[in-house]
């Protein structure tokens, strides 16, 4: 049997709309992500279990992990014998934590291992991005590649091998707070402007290229000083109850950056010490999340998708 874990991720990472994403590892060792198990069976079987299974359509055909299995059998490994594929759905849907990417990445990585198809990294990433595009209302890689490869990834169609890994300060801590309600990614994309002015396009290019270069040359504080989301956050913040209040309250507790993870409603902070992250997490627990929400202090998951 093959068992694969794929981690949650922060899409956009503030400065890189659709182009920069980071995989998350809670520092308490919690596995914040989906697990897919593939084993031999008499006939193809799909099982969806886990804390958030009941939030997905009851019909297997509408489940992305099952769709990955069908696609894999039809187009990648037609001679693969029958399997049982179980998705343990541990991430909330529409959370901004790359939940659909997690299922897709875990499913294709597990199937590739089980069938020994040895797809190249780029082939797998393309396949994963095709499926992510089905539900999110746009083809973007910023959950797929960090989830698959780990770390912080500068990623997209134009980029050689689809992704370049960027370093971060290993003293940075990230607080990820899911408030407990969902925000559909396609809806959160529909509120964005369809076009950017010349000024905004140039500024976006400058910010992302400078941020990446500063990280690559180890100038981490300078990178933080220009880390802000001028593209998506202003349009999405009004959709997320409590975000504006959190954004103005958290710097007092040591948050260097407060922004939206992916399409939201998960909020993330970057903090330069564990103590600051703990204070931010305490505030978020008291003020941002409801009974269905959760909050984790994280560092980056450098391993990405792996066999358990
Ligand atoms: N295995 C799956 N995991 C997540 N969503 C799935 C899955 N299978 C089908 N879906 C459907 O795909 C849609 C995912 O919606 P959406 O893109 O808003 O969520 P998301 O990927 O969880 O968001 P985010 O990337 O912000 O975490 C939902 O309609 C959900 O029912
Ligand atoms: N970059 C995507 C991530 C979706 O999780 C967006 O912001 O819409």
From TrEMBL:
Q: Which reaction does it catalyse?
A: L-homoserine + ATP = O-phospho-L-homoserine + ADP + H(+)
Q: Which InterPro entries match?
A: GHMP_kinase_C_dom, GHMP_kinase_C_sf, GHMP_kinase_N_dom, GHMP_knse_ATP-bd_CS, Homoserine_kinase, Ribosomal_Su5_D2-typ_SF, Ribsml_uS5_D2-typ_fold_subgr
EC number(s) stated in the UniProt entry for this protein:
2.7.1.39
Which PROSITE patterns does the record match to this protein? GHMP_KINASES_ATP
Residue intervals of the GHMP kinase C-terminal domain: 216-289
Q: Which residues bind ATP?
A: 92-102
Pfam families, alphabetized: GHMP_kinases_C, GHMP_kinases_N
Q: Where are the transmembrane segments?
A: none
Compartments where found:
Cytoplasm
What metabolic or biological pathway is this protein involved in? Amino-acid biosynthesis; L-threonine biosynthesis; L-threonine from L-aspartate: step 4/5
- Identify a single GO molecular function assigned to this protein: kinase activity
Where do the GHMP kinase N-terminal domain residues begin and end?
63-151
Regarding protein family, the annotation reads: Belongs to the GHMP kinase family. Homoserine kinase subfamily.
What protein name applies here?
Homoserine kinase
Give the source species.
Pseudoalteromonas gelatinilytica
The encoding gene: thrB
């Amino acid at each position: 049997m093959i068992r694969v874990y794929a981690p949650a991720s922060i899409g956009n990472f503030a400065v890189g709309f659709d182009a920069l994403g980071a995989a998350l590892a809670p520092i308490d060792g919690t596995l914040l992500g989906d697990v897919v198990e593939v084993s031999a069976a008499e006939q193809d079987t799909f099982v969806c279990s886990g804390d958030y299974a009941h939030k997905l359509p009851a019909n297997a055909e509408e489940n992305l992990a099952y769709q990955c299995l069908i696609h894999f059998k039809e187009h990648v490994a037609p001679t693969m014998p029958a399997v049982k594929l179980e998705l343990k759905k541990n991430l909330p849907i529409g959370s901004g934590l790359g939940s659909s990417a997690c299922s897709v990445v875990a499913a294709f990585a597990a199937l590739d291992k089980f069938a020994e198809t040895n797809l190249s990294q780029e082939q797998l990433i393309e396949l994963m991005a095709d499926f992510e595009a089905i539900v999110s209302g746009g083809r973007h890689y910023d959950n797929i590649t960090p989830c698959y490869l780990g770390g912080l990834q500068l990623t997209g169609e134009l980029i050689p091998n689809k992704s370049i890994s960027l370093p971060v300060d290993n003293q940075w801590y990230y607080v990820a707070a899911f408030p407990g309600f969902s925000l559909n990614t396609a809806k959160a994309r529909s509120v964005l402007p369809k076009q950017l002015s010349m000024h905004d396009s140039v500024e976006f290019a400058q910010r992302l290229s400078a941020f990446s270069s500063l990280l690559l040359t180890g100038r981490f504080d300078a990178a933080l000083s220009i880390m802000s989301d001028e593209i998506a956050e202003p349009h999405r913040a009004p959709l997320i109850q409590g975000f504006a209040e959190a954004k103005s309250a958290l710097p007092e507790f040591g948050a260097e950056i407060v922004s939206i993870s992916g399409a939201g409603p998960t909020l993330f902070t970057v903090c330069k010490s564990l103590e600051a992250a703990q204070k931010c997490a305490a505030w978020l627990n008291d003020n941002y999340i409801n009974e269905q929400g959760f909050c984790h202090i994280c560092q980056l998951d450098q391993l990405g998708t792996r066999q358990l």
